[in-house]
Each structure stands twice: as structure tokens, then as C-alpha cells.
Design brief:
By secondary structure, the protein is an alpha/beta fold. The strands form 5 sheets. The chain has an 8-stranded mixed beta sheet.
Length: about 775
């Protein structure tokens, strides 16, 4: 059993050092953030200035405001002795070998004999940094390469040296996965390790297509973005975000470091990149790079004139038809088969990327899985290079490479001679010299892809939902609707599977899925159509049905656990709140956002927020409840969405006993374990709440005044204020003139009676239509 780190020191308060410190604090560590002393009275000035800047970053680098208190600033002169008290020291100072070596010498003189030491260098040889240190020090030393921003990018490359103790590596791998939530890849001590080596090649390939092959920036970003299963920022927007000076620095150092790389010339710094950096045109941080925003217009760079121009028309044939193909593998095949300019670019770049990736084995990694995971976790690709190769056809790609005189490494030729047809087969992966070996998961999470491929695991299904057997008497209800919305099929299906769960010998049920997001809430398209056609009685019946369903879940005789991750909005949030037990990924963004579409929560969300506000107060005295009720009111009225699962607890969306996981991929495994534990100790549903304290008309006036202040301050429209008044009406008990105890059903009825009339309001229907069209709220 490995021991988790509880304290750490990060040396260097630059962009990466500060963000690494923040993420360690997110994981519960006490972190000392140290840097050079400032030349001023306050010697902590440099660190404190960097930290204040980090606090303002968007998206935020801390889970909550309180989390930031775990980071303790200091300087190398006055506070270096603190490193003697920590479990782990991470070096993140300037990329200068001599400076890093001097720091390692000072560390060895100060730290304990069991302290782990790592460097976050991205360009220097790991072993060289620890050169000259004792054997004991070198055993505890390795590279820990985080990707920026560390909170949001999953990849952590661990780079052991020949001297690194294998137990130290295993401990760091375990801690990285379980406690930091990282996808860990073991990389070799080679220039730029795995992800940046392949990623730089891909970037340089895009720049070359722009400067030499007649494709515009917009065309290349179209073909290397979401249509290809990569982030929307694609090639040039990503370069602008990274910084063109950083890009040039990496290429400048990489070129001389890889004399034996067959594609070395690809990394020679392009002239256009040199010119941009020389003129201080560095990307997003200077306001212009490959792109420049001028007013509301996005301009792009002309490589011949070095001036910025409006985007030219894209000449990529029928690219929109290809874009509409929902299945990524089918979409990639369509792109590859395209006879026009889009297909030509995609074929040439894909063949080059796949050849280069294969040629880096075993130089930078021993297995294709490491490269695939590095590109998925570090660069946000949906499929890694070898997964793309399999999707397009192993034999076809190999034949096309040979026809184009593109080098094919010997191990791939051997693979073909063995009649292997793919890199991945039946949950095994091909490894040179070892052939097919079982595919290891990054942690021991439940792999839904395996479960879904076995028809025996599907116990029930309809077009938009399924009940899957997770083993040991535990089942999973999985949404499969678009956006995981709570469509009629999903809601009706949930009622059906509860009947199955109650009558058959199952121990409990997990509600969750393998998607990036838990649920987008109610199906607005269905509800909007019903409202426009005047089917308000039918909508009222659906609201009653949904409320009864949520109550049934909450008081179900067997444990039901929500396994939530990503966005859980509106009705999705209400479903999570109805589940008495929740397992949540730390990166959970949950909220009652109904006011953004002109409605109020109508499936018990308000009732539960009022109940939780009352529970948080020391007594049921109105003056003690009011601050918590006002917080709940503002949270719903402003359609606040949590920045993390921890903030969701502060806002009242998640209960205090929620199990929060840094590694969200483990949520189904932990949810299953939770059900087995609850079953073993003898599960009993929560006691019914028949007496919720509501505060009546005086508190309603207070809440309405708060809405008035927001309106007068320009933070809310007149209709927002009207909606907030209806929300206050429900939260304080309707027409009750004084504080009173009411049952849950009383508040549920108020929710229904207020929800339906709002749906008939023209401004609400405008908001719904706008959200469906633009995916953005309308403040009319």
C-alpha cells in the first residue's frame, strides 16, 4: 500500500510552478510555493505577485476560494528550510541546466532522506539535472512533466532515470492517478518526451502546409479541429494560446537534440515564426499571433505580406457534409476518401503523423498505447495516432505509405508479416516483440466499452437509455440521448428500471454514463414544441411524473448512487440532488440553470435547496435560516454553475457526504463499491421530511428586494427580476404570511403551479428558442 503525499514544495512561481502548486492544493496537500527573493522590502513580492495573478485566471485553477489557502508563499533566502519538512519537492525554475543543478545541490543539503524530488522540465535531459548528486538522491529523483493547465489537462508524463528506484516510480504513478486525477504515461528520457515530440511534429506539419502548400490558416484549422476529433483550437489557435515564443524555443532546442531523427528537418524553425517572435508578435498574450481580433472581426496572418486580413472563403469541397457525420471513425474515413483539397491535406498529414509516431517506437515509448494516451490526455485528441490508423484500416494505411515512399518502421513490417490486422484487438494491444498483450486500463476503473460489447450485460434498453449489469448484483442506468438530456424515453425508462430493481434480486443501481458530461437537463426541444402547440395539460402531467420519479429515487428501498461528471444542468442537477448518495468527479459543473431559459426548477430542485438551507442553519430560527436561504436564492436566480464538485457542496447542490474523486474515470467503480458497502451494512432510505421550515412573506420581500438591487445595478433584466420574484414566492412558501413547517409535497406543488404559467410566457419561449438555436442564454 502506497502512502499519499501530504506536503509539497514547488520551487519556481512561474506559470507552471504556480499552477502545479494550485493543483496539489486541490488534491488536499499543503504546498510551499518558493521563488527568488524580490529586490524590495517584501522579499515575498515575486511569489505573492505571481500568486495573485494566478487567482484571477479563467478558467480558475483552484477548486474553491478556500483551497487557495493551502498554498504558502515564500522565498529562497528566508524560507528554503521549509523543504526539510515536505514529502515531495517539485522543481519548476527557469530552463537552465546549470541553475537546476545548483538547486539540486542545495536541496540535497536540506531535504530529508525520504523526500521525493522531481523536475517539471520539458526540454532538458532529466538525468543531467541530477548529475553529481548522491546515489540516494538519484534513486528518489525523476521527471514529472505536467501539461498546462495542470488542473484541466489529464496527462502526466513520468520520466525515470536509470537510477530511479522502481518503487518510487510506482508510488508516483499511483499518486498521480488516484490523488491528482492524472492519466499517467511512463516516458523515456528523450527530447520533449512523448506528447510534445509528436505534438510539435503535428504543429510544424500544419505550418508547412500553410507556407508551402497553399492552404489558408482557416482551412488548416478546419481540417485539424473538431472534424478530425481534435480540440476546436486546432493548429494555429493552439499555437497562439501556447505562445509563439514558446513554440520557437521548443523547436530551437529540439532540432539539435535529435540528430538521428529521420524527420529532423521538420523541426527547423520556420522563417515566418522567427519574424513573428522578433517583432514581439507572440500570440494570445500580446493580442496577435497567427490570428488577431480587431473589433468583432477575427483576422488571420498572410505569410507573404505578414499583414492581417479577413478570412478568405474556405475551398474544401463538401466539407459540411463530412462535418455532420456523428461517428468519428466514419467521419475520418470520409475525410480520408475525399477526392478534393480536404482529402489531399488529410491523407498527406495523416500518413506523415502515423509514420512519425510509429518511427518513435521504441525511441520515446515501448508501446503504441503510451503514444495514443499521451496525445489524447495531453492534446485532447479523441483518438490517438494508432487508434486512427486502426480506424482507417491497417493494411490500407500501410499500402498508402509505401505508395507515397513514406518510411515504415521495421516493427510494423514485422507486424504485417505476422498477419496482424490492427494495433488493438479484443482489448489487447500489439507490442513489438511481445505481440498482443492485454490492454491495461490507466486505473482499475470499470470499462463501459467492454461491458457494452457483451450483449449479456444489457438487461434492458430503449432507443435512448439502457440498464447494464456491472456485476455483483449492481446495475447501471445509462443515458444515451443526445447531450444525455432527460428526454421522454430516458424518464419513462428510468421508471421502468426502478420496477425491475424493486422486484428482482439486485442490490442497487448506479445512475451514470461514460460520456464527458452527466446530463444537459430536460429536453428543451420536446418541451418547447409541446408549449408552442399549447399542450400545457400534458406538460403538467409530465412535471408531476418527473417529481414523483425523483421522490421515488430519493426514498427507494435499495441504494441508488449518482455517478456524476462534467456538466449536470437543470433537470440533470435535480436528478443528482434526488439521489441520496453521490459519487462525483472533482471536475463536476452542476447547477440549477432553469432561470436562464425563463423557467424555475420544477422537479424538486427548489424544495431540496430550501431543505438544505434549513439544515445548514444552527436552529430553525428565521434569522439563522435567512443567510443560507438567501445564498440558495441567489445561486438559483443567477443560474450559478459550480466550478468543481467541492464548490457544488458549498452551493448546496451536492450533499456534504458526497464522495469526490480526483480521477473521475473511477466514478463507476467507486459508485458500485458504495452500493455494495451500503448493502452490506443494511441499507435504509433517508427518513421522510414532513416538516421543512419556510419563512413566509417577510423573507420573500427581502429576496425580492435583492432581485431589485441586481436589476438596478444592471446585472439582471426586468424579466430576470420577475422570474426571481416567482422563485422567491416558491422558496418562502407561497402565500404563507409567517414562518411555517410544511411537507415536501407542499413545495413540490408550488413548483408545479409556478412552472407551467412561466412556460406560456412569450419571453420564456424566446429564451428556449434562443438556447436551442445558439446554445447560449438570452437575457431578454
Amino acid at each position: 500500500m502506497h502512502k499519499p503525499f501530504r506536503t509539497a514544495a514547488v520551487l519556481g512561481a512561474g506559470v507552471m510552478g504556480t499552477q502545479i502548486a494550485a493543483h496539489l492544493a486541490n488534491a488536499g496537500l499543503t504546498v510551499h510555493l518558493l521563488d527568488l527573493p524580490a529586490e524590495m522590502a517584501n522579499k515575498n513580492g515575486l511569489v505573492e505577485g505571481a500568486f495573485k495573478k494566478a487567482l484571477k485566471q479563467s478558467p480558475p485553477i483552484f477548486f474553491t476560494e478556500k483551497t487557495a489557502r493551502r498554498v504558502i508563499p515564500g522565498n529562497f533566502d528566508d524560507h528554503f528550510h521549509r523543504v526539510a519538512e515536505v514529502d515531495w519537492v517539485i522543481e519548476a525554475v527557469v530552463e537552465n541546466l546549470e541553475i537546476k543543478q545548483q538547486l539540486m545541490q542545495r536541496l540535497e543539503e536540506t531535504i530529508r532522506e525520504n523526500t521525493l524530488i522531481s523536475t517539471n522540465t520539458s526540454g532538458l535531459p532529466i538525468h543531467a539535472i541530477a548529475q553529481g548528486r548522491s546515489e540516494s538522491f538519484r534513486k528518489r529523483f525523476l521527471g514529472t512533466h505536467f501539461f498546462n493547465p495542470p488542473r484541466y489537462l489529464k496527462l502526466l508524463e513520468l520520466i525515470p532515470t536509470p537510477d530511479t528506484d522502481s518503487q518510487i516510480l510506482e508510488r508516483m504513478k499511483w499518486f498521480g492517478q488516484i490523488h491528482l486525477g492524472k492519466g499517467v504515461v511512463i516516458a523515456k528520457d528523450t527530447p520533449n518526451f512523448i506528447a510534445n515530440r509528436i505534438g510539435m511534429f503535428v504543429t510544424m506539419l500544419g505550418i508547412k502546409a500553410w507556407t508551402e502548400h497553399g492552404y489558408t490558416i482557416e482551412e488548416i484549422d478546419t481540417l485539424t479541429g473538431e472534424i478530425a476529433g481534435r480540440p476546436k483550437s486546432a493548429t494555429f489557435r493552439t499555437a497562439d494560446l501556447v505562445g509563439l515564443d514558446t513554440l520557437m524555443y521548443v523547436a530551437y532546442n529540439l532540432y539539435p537534440a535529435i540528430p538521428h531523427d529521420e524527420s529532423r528537418e521538420m523541426f527547423r524553425v520556420p522563417k515566418v515564426l522567427k519574424k513573428l517572435v522578433e517583432t514581439g508578435t507572440l500570440g494570445a498574450k500580446t493580442g496577435q499571433g497567427f490570428y488577431k481580433k480587431q473589433g468583432s472581426q477575427i483576422l488571420s496572418l498572410n505569410p507573404e505580406t505578414m499583414g492581417y486580413e479577413p478570412a478568405r472563403p474556405i475551398h474544401l469541397g463538401d466539407i459540411e457534409t463530412i462535418r455532420k457525420i456523428s461517428d468519428l471513425k466514419e467521419r475520418l474515413s470520409a475525410l480520408y476518401n475525399d477526392p478534393g483539397r480536404a482529402g489531399e491535406f488529410f491523407r498527406q498529414s495523416t500518413l506523415a503523423i502515423l509514420s512519425y509516431s510509429a518511427s518513435r517506437i521504441p525511441e520515446i515509448a515501448d508501446c503504441v498505447t503510451d503514444i495514443d494516451r499521451a496525445m489524447r490526455w495531453g492534446f485532447g485528441w479523441e483518438l490517438g495516432p494508432f487508434e486512427i490508423w486502426d480506424a482507417l484500416g491497417f493494411e490500407r494505411i500501410l499500402a498508402d505509405m509505401k505508395a507515397a515512399n513514406i518510411s515504415v518502421p521495421e516493427w510494423v513490417e514485422t507486424m504485417q508479416q505476422m498477419c496482424a490486422k490492427s494495433f488493438y484487438k479484443n482489448h489487447h494491444v500489439y507490442k513489438p516483440e511481445l505481440h498482443y498483450t492485454p490492454l491495461e486500463t490507466s486505473t482499475n476503473e470499470i470499462d463501459l466499452n467492454i461491458i457494452k460489447t457483451n450483449s449479456e450485460n444489457v438487461l434492458w434498453q430503449n432507443p435512448e437509455a439502457a440498464l447494464l449489469d456491472l456485476g455483483d448484483g449492481v446495475v447501471l442506468y445509462e443515458f444515451r440521448s443526445k447531450g444525455n438530456t432527460l428526454s421522454l424515453n430516458v424518464v419513462n425508462g428510468l421508471a421502468e428500471v426502478l420496477d425491475l430493481l424493486e422486484t428482482q434480486n439486485y442490490k442497487g443501481m448506479v445512475i451514470g454514463n461514460s460520456s464527458a458530461h452527466f446530463s444537459g437537463g430536460a429536453n428543451l426541444a420536446e418541451m418547447g414544441m409541446m408549449a408552442q402547440s399549447g399542450q400545457f395539460d400534458a406538460i403538467a402531467r409530465l412535471i408531476v411524473q418527473f417529481q414523483l420519479l425523483m421522490q421515488r429515487i430519493h426514498y427507494f428501498p435499495k441504494p441508488i448512487v449518482a455517478a456524476v461528471q462534467g456538466r449536470a444542468l437543470g433537470g440533470g442537477c435535480e436528478l443528482v440532488m434526488a439521489c441520496p448518495h453521490v459519487v462525483a468527479a472533482a471536475e463536476t459543473y452542476i447547477g440549477l440553470v432553469e432561470l436562464g431559459v425563463g423557467l424555475i426548477p420544477g422537479a424538486g430542485g427548489i424544495m431540496r435547496m430550501v431543505a438544505r438551507a434549513t439544515e445548514r442553519a444552527l436552529t430553525e430560527t428565521p434569522s439563522q435560516i435567512q443567510p443560507f436561504l438567501r445564498q440558495a436564492f441567489e445561486t438559483i436566480a443567477m443560474a450559478k454553475v459550480s466550478n468543481s464538485a467541492y464548490e457544488a457542496q458549498e452551493l448546496g447542490y451536492l450533499p456534504c457526504h458526497t464522495r469526490i474523486l480526483m480521477d473521475g474515470d473511477r466514478r463507476l467503480t467507486v459508485a458500485k463499491a458504495e452500493i455494495l458497502y451500503l448493502n452490506q451494512i443494511g441499507y435504509a432510505p433517508p427518513p421522510e421530511q414532513n416538516s421543512i421550515m419556510v419563512l413566509g412573506r417577510p423573507t420573500r420581500a427581502m429576496l425580492e428586494h435583492a432581485a431589485y438591487i441586481f436589476n438596478q445595478g444592471g446585472y439582471a433584466s426586468e424579466y430576470d427580476r420577475y422570474l426571481a420574484s416567482r422563485l422567491a414566492y416558491v422558496m418562502t412558501g407561497g402565500e404563507l404570511t409567517a414562518p411555517s413547517l410544511v411537507p415536501e409535497d407542499y413545495l413540490l406543488q408550488l413548483e408545479r403551479e409556478t412552472f407551467i404559467p412561466l412556460l406560456s410566457q412569450p419571453k420564456t419561449q424566446e429564451r428556449i428558442a434562443h438556447m436551442l438555436k445558439t446554445k447560449k442564454p438570452l437575457r431578454n
